[in-house]
Every structure is written in structure tokens, then in C-alpha cells.
């Protein structure tokens, strides 16, 4: 289990987390800043010079879940992580990677009035004996308060806010321990019970009258997705497609409305499982049907209608290729077999040309 303690720079996360590990038997404090410090030591200077925040390094975002997983294999847990995380896409990437490793995340935000935050930042002495360095850190923290104010719009719905205005580090830790026991702040990230084997998943393409395709924005990953999900044990793929569309969009589809467009074999990449991905045509939705869509807020943030070209900014390359092949199969009334989004054999010669995605000949 991960206890991620978020909040503005200078709110007192590390102090509270040091107290928290004393209240949670078997727990361990893990500060992801240590990963950033090692990257600064290892990476070339020309790569690090323009970077003001470790979180902007893709390598940092990949390594933090790996290190957290490795540490939890050494101790009973939980792992207590004091780390400011103000970009929602970075949150998706990190928490999604932790979920893919089977790790539950309890997400807290320590909050306080801005005047209190400013007082706490002014009292910080990050580098004893080096007043100039401490002053630079205080200035950096103050400069990032507007970013925290902006991020609170999504943090409020994603995490459990704990008002620390009248609490010291000990009382804050006690409050966090109570909430962890209750499970109040556990992120409701969807996971399959089969955490090791490859999967079969069913996706449904739904269209508007202009033939734009509907994509959804999951809370647990940085990229957009097609409506759909993993086929459960003993479940027919068409049944899974219907079930997932009903759960994710509140939309009831008849079996006769589904037509299989593409079967794509997706290779395993790191902790992300591979397997067969079935893509169905779910038909066109009227304006009234689109207005009636209802999404589970704990799983999906929203939906969007896009063209194939617009989907390129939202989908990973292999998934965009899958979409392009499925759309071409829909237009021609065919069925396509793909591997990693690329049609094989005769299907490869009919792969559509997509801007930014090489065509396979």
C-alpha cells in the first residue's frame, strides 16, 4: 500500500510523514526527491540544465513506481510518500503505474490557508549554514503557491484534503492514520484480479452523425481510451463490450448493434499486460443519446468526440494505429487482424495513412 501525502511546497508534508511512520507498524518513508537527486548525478549536464523540476523528467516518472514497488518487497509496508504532485497527467501516470503493479494508493492533500502557508515557508531552513540556498528554496516554494491553488480544482475531487491550519506534525500524522484505517482516501482505480497474465479486452467505437469517434478520459492513466475493458473469466467478449459500455457510459447496446472490426494482439510492455484487443463498431449515437451519457466519476473524467487525426494527440501510437485500421475496416465492411496496431499479411496493404503514423506496406 502507498500513502501519498500531497500538498503545497512548504505545507509540512515531510514532517508529518516522519511522524506517520511511527504510527504505522512496518511502514517506511520514501521521498521521491532522492530519485531526482540520483538522476541529476547520473544524467548529462545538458539534459539537466533546463529542468527545474524532477517531475518533468520521464525517467523520474518511470523510476518512482519501480523504486516504490521494490521497497515494498523489502518491508511489510505501507510506504509513506511525501511528495507534491500538482499536474493531473503526472498523477495519472504515476498512480496508474502503481495500480498496474497491484499497489493500492491512499491519496491525501495537506491543506492550509495561504497566510499560514506563507508563514511556514518563511520559517523553513532547508540548508542549515547556507542562508542563500535556504532563501532560494523559500522563494521557489512561494512562487509555486499559484500552481497549488490551480491544482486544488482537481485535487479536491481526487484526494482527501486534510486541513492542517491548526495542527502540528504529530496531530496531522494522527489524523492521517485515522483516515488510512477508514480507507477514506483510497483511490478507486480499477484493477483486474488477474495481475500477471495477458488479457482479452473488448472496446466499442461509438460515433456521432459526423462520424467522429467517442473517447473517454480515465482517471488512472495519462492517455485517453476507447469505451470498454477486460473480458472477465467465462464471459463472452460481446457480453463484456455491452457490460463495459453500460458501466462506463450508462448506455445499453443490443448484441445485434455490435460488429467486430479488428482483432489486435498487443505485446506486453514492462508492467503493462498484453493480449488480444477486440474492437467493435457500436453504431452512431444521436444528439439526445450523447446528452444522456452518464460516466462514473471515480473511473472516468469525461468524454470527447474526435476525428482520427485529433485522436493522435490523445492516444498512444499503437492505439491510434488500431483505431485507424478499425475505421478503415468499418468503411470497407471488413474485419482486420493486427499485431501491435499494424495489419498483417493482406491487411497491411490496406492500412490507412495517418498523419504522424507510418504506413505499413
Any overview of this molecule?
It is a single chain. The protein has 361 residues and is α/β, with parallel strands linked by helices. It folds into two domains: 2-182, P-loop containing nucleotide triphosphate hydrolases (Rossmann fold, 3-Layer(aba) Sandwich), CATH 3.40.50.300; 199-350, Alpha-Beta Complex (Nucleoside Triphosphate Pyrophosphohydrolase), CATH 3.90.79.10. It contains 13 helices and 13 strands. It has helices at 13-23, 33-42, 45-48, 58-72, 88-100, 114-122, 131-143, 145-158, 169-182, 237-249, 287-291, 308-311, 317-332; strands spanning 2-7, 28-29, 79-82, 105-111, 160-163, 199-207, 213-218, 228-230, 259-266, 275-284, 300-306, 336-339, 342-343. The protein has a six-stranded mixed sheet with strand order 8-6-10-9-12-13, sandwiched between helices. Helix 1 crosses helix 9 and helix 4 (58-72) packs parallel to helix 5.
Quickly name the level 1 CATH class of the largest domain.
Alpha Beta
In helices, the fraction of residues equals: 25-40%
**Roughly what is the average pLDDT, rounded to an integer?**
86
Rg of Cα set: 23 Å
- Report the total helices: 13
Got a strand count?
13
> Major beta sheet, specifics?
6 strands, mixed
Q: Indicate the structural class.
A: alpha/beta
CATH level-4 homologous superfamily of the largest domain: P-loop containing nucleotide triphosphate hydrolases
CATH architecture of the largest domain: 3-Layer(aba) Sandwich
Q: How many domains comprise the coordinates?
A: 2
Proportion of residues in β-strands: 15-25%
Distance between the termini: 47 Å
* Tertiary shape: elongated
Order of helices and strands: EHEHHHEHEHHHEHEEEHEEHEHHEE
The largest beta-sheet arranges its strands as: 8-6-10-9-12-13
Query: Spans with pLDDT under 50 lasting ≥5 residues?
Result: 190-195, 348-361
Amino acid at each position: 500500500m502507498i500513502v501519498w501525502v500531497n500538498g503545497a511546497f512548504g505545507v509540512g508534508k515531510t514532517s508529518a510523514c516522519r511522524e506517520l511512520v511511527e504510527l504505522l507498524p512496518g511502514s517506511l518513508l520514501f521521498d521521491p526527491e532522492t530519485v531526482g537527486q540520483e538522476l541529476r548525478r547520473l544524467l548529462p549536464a545538458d539534459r539537466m540544465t533546463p529542468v527545474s523540476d524532477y517531475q518533468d523528467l520521464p525517467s523520474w516518472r518511470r523510476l518512482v513506481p519501480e523504486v516504490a514497488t521494490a521497497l515494498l518487497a523489502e518491508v511489510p509496508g505501507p510506504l509513506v510518500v511525501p511528495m507534491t504532485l500538482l499536474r493531473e497527467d503526472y498523477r495519472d501516470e504515476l498512480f496508474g503505474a502503481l495500480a498496474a503493479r497491484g499497489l493500492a494508493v491512499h491519496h491525501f492533500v495537506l491543506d492550509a490557508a495561504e497566510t499560514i502557508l506563507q508563514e511556514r515557508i518563511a520559517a523553513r531552513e532547508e540548508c542549515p549554514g547556507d542562508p542563500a540556498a535556504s532563501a532560494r528554496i523559500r522563494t521557489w516554494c512561494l512562487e509555486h503557491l499559484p500552481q497549488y491553488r490551480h491544482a486544488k480544482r482537481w485535487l479536491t475531487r481526487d484526494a482527501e484534503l486534510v486541513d492542517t491550519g491548526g495542527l502540528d506534525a504529530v496531530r496531522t500524522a494522527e489524523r492521517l492514520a485515522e483516515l488510512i484505517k477508514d480507507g477514506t482516501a483510497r483511490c478507486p482505480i480499477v484493477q483486474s484480479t488477474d495481475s500477471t497474465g495477458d488479457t482479452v479486452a473488448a472496446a466499442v467505437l461509438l460515433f456521432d452523425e459526423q462520424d467522429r469517434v467517442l473517447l473517454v478520459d480515465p482517471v488512472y492513466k495519462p492517455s485517453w481510451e476507447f469505451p470498454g475493458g477486460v473480458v472477465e473469466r467465462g464471459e463472452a467478449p460481446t457480453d463484456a463490450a455491452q457490460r463495459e459500455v453500460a458501466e462506463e457510459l450508462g448506455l445499453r447496446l443490443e448484441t445485434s448493434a455490435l460488429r467486430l472490426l479488428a482483432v489486435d494482439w498487443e505485446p506486453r510492455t514492462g508492467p503493462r499486460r498484453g493480449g488480444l484487443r477486440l474492437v467493435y463498431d457500436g453504431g452512431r449515437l444521436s444528439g439526445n443519446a450523447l446528452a444522456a451519457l452518464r460516466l462514473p466519476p471515480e473511473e472516468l473524467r469525461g468524454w470527447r468526440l474526435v476525428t482520427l487525426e485529433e485522436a493522435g494527440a490523445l492516444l498512444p501510437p499503437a492505439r491510434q494505429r488500431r483505431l485507424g485500421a478499425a475505421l478503415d475496416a468499418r468503411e470497407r465492411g471488413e474485419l482486420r487482424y493486427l499485431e501491435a496496431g499494424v495489419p498483417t499479411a493482406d491487411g497491411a496493404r490496406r492500412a490507412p495513412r495517418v498523419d504522424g503514423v507510418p504506413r505499413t506496406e
